[in-house]
Design a protein that fits this description.
single chain, 242 residues, 5-stranded mixed beta sheet, 18% helix
Length: 242
């Protein structure tokens, strides 16, 4: 398989409202985490940080320009791989211990990481069997109803467990922007992880269904609007709400 270069590992695109989409094009879509950068007046926000096989700070200068809070929507490997590169980190309190001591089991890397998830292999001395996430203890523990304040905009923390115990979404009520992590996205939803709990997931999806959303930026695949959000949530509930 072809080996990618560090310079081609990330792509970026402005999607409006001060939000930039960052992604790793050499990872297949189902395994490829969306990384979201939000510009604020007093500080910027990073939602998730990708797999960590290439430095995000070195290749995407946008994330180094201003003070930045790196938030993990949850602690799976594809969402926290570069969190160690940022000094100011946040995660839901119930998964904070994983950032302290990540391993291949608790980050679900054992279940997914192989050469098969790539269209081109990471540069350098890549070996899927040796892949691991570096420790990145959080300075801020998030919980339901708290707010992340960027100075001129504010995101409410929604604790939406099920996919994982500490799964969160960030909701900007003023604009209707939702960063939904892996709670809901426009693709095959994953609910087979060791700490997935289906009744919690059902309850969280019912909450999502009631949100007024202009656009949802999910943890995977393309962004989507209110109609698609309701379609995804209702389809999920029809299958799993017994």
């Amino acid at each position: 398989m072809q080996i990618a270069t560090p310079e081609t590992w990330y792509q970026t695109k402005s999607v409006g409202a001060g939000v930039t989409w960052i992604w790793e094009p050499h990872i297949k879509p189902y395994y490829r985490c969306n990384i979201w950068h939000v510009r604020g007046r007093d500080q910027d926000l990073l939602v998730d940080s990708g797999m960590g096989v290439v430095s995000l700070r070195e290749q995407v200068k946008l994330v180094t320009e201003r003070p930045l809070l790196a938030v993990a929507s949850h602690s799976h490997f594809d969402h926290i791989g570069n969190h160690h590169e940022f000094p100011d980190r946040a995660i839901h309190i119930s998964e904070a211990h994983i950032l302290v001591r990540p391993d291949r089991y608790n980050t679900v890397a054992d279940d997914y990481v192989s050469d098969d998830i790539f269209t081109a292999l990471p540069p350098g001395d890549w070996d899927a069997a040796r892949y691991d996430v570096q420790p990145a203890p959080a300075q801020t523990y998030l919980d339901e109803g708290e707010f992340i304040d960027l100075g001129d905009r504010s995101f409410e923390v929604l604790h939406l467990p099920g996919h994982s115990p500490g799964s969160i979404a960030l909701y900007e009520k003023a604009t209707g922007i939702l960063f939904s992590g892996d709670v809901i996205y426009d693709g095959p939803l994953a609910y087979e992880a060791y700490h997935t709990e289906m009744q919690q997931y059902v309850n969280s999806m019912k909450r999502v269904l009631e949100l007024s959303v202009s656009i949802a930026h999910g943890g995977h695949f393309d962004s989507f609007g209110q109609e698609k959000l309701r379609e995804i949530a209702r389809t999920f509930l029809a299958e799993h709400d017994r």
